[in-house]
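Take a specimen:
=====
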Amino acid sequence: MSDQLEDLVRQAQEWRGANTVPLEGLRHRVTRPAAPTTRWRAVTIAAAVVLAVAVSVGIAVRAGQAPPRPADEPPPTPAQSQAPKPVPVPTGSQPMHYGPTWMPPGLGEDSRSFELRDAQIVRAVRTWRGAGQELEIAVDLVGDAGAVTGPNAEVLGGPARLDWPSAAGDPGRLEWRVDGHRIVLTARVSKPPASTARRIAESVRSDPATLRPAFTTDWLPAGLTVITYTAGDSRIPVGEPFRAWMGVLTATDPADPQRTVRVAAVAGATIPDGGEVTARQARPATYLRTADGQTLTQRAVVGPVVWSVTGPGPEVLPRADLERIFDGVVENENVDLDWLGTRPA
C-alpha cells in the first residue's frame, strides 16, 4: 500500500475518534423486519442497564427504497458516473484471525476494522482502550511477511522487534510472526512496560472473533475503491457507561487520494448547523458545503443514529455523486456488536 493510502487509512481511524458524541445509558439490540431488501430500515432501540465491560449495540436506520427517477428528470451530468459500479465490500462476518488471551486490567475492546486492497482484506485490526492506555493489534493477511527486521527480542521463542521509547507520550511497538503472518502490537497514550507488551504478545492465539459490517453501499463513482471499514466506540473506558457507537466505511481513488469519501453511522451525532435543508428518499436531510468539502446527513427514522456521507468539494466530486452514494447505502443483516467493551475471557 502506498504512503498516501497508508495516511488515508490512519486518517480514517482518527476521524472515528473526532466525530463521536457522548450517548449515555443506552443499550441497542437489532431486530429485523421481514423484507430483506429494504434500505436504511428502522430498528428497535430499547433502553437497558449499561454494562461495565460488555456493551451491546445496534443501529437505527432509515426506511424506504430509493424512488425511481421521474420520466421528465434530466439524465445525469457528464461528471456523474453513468452506470452502477459493483462495490466489493464484504457483507458477511469477516474473521479477525487472532486476539490476546490476556490483557492488563482496565482495558476493553472498543473497535474492530479491516483494510482492503483490490477488494481483498489485507489487514485486520483490533483496539482496546481504558485506564489511560490504548493497545492495537494488527494482523497482515496477505503477502510474504518475511523475517523480522533487526530482531532484538523474543515472543514465544521466536524473533521479535521491540521499539519501546522511554518517553511516556511516544508510541511503543512490538512486531513478531505467528503462522507466517506479521503481527504488530502498538501502544499509545501512556504505554505499559515493555514486559507487559511481551506478555500480551505471548498470549495471542487464533481467535474466532469476527467483524460483520453494519452497512455497505451498492454504488461508488468510477475510480473509487473501499479501503477500510471500522465499527466501534471511540471512548469506552471500562467501568463507565457506553458512550457512542460508530460505523465508518472509507473509499478513495488510488490515483487521486483527494477523492476520498466516508460513509458513517454515528449514534448520538448531531445534524450540522447552517446547511441546506433538502430531502433524500422523501425524508428531510441536510447538505452542508464547507471549505474542506461537502456532507449530506440524515437522522434515522428511530433512535439516535445519524447517517452521513462526506466527500471533497463538488469541483472534485459532483454533488449528484455524493447523493447517489447516500441513496445506495444498504444495511446488512444480523450485525453482532456484543464484543464492544469486552476483555479476553
Q: What stands out?
A: The two ends are 34 Å apart (CA to CA). The first helix runs from residue 3 to 18.
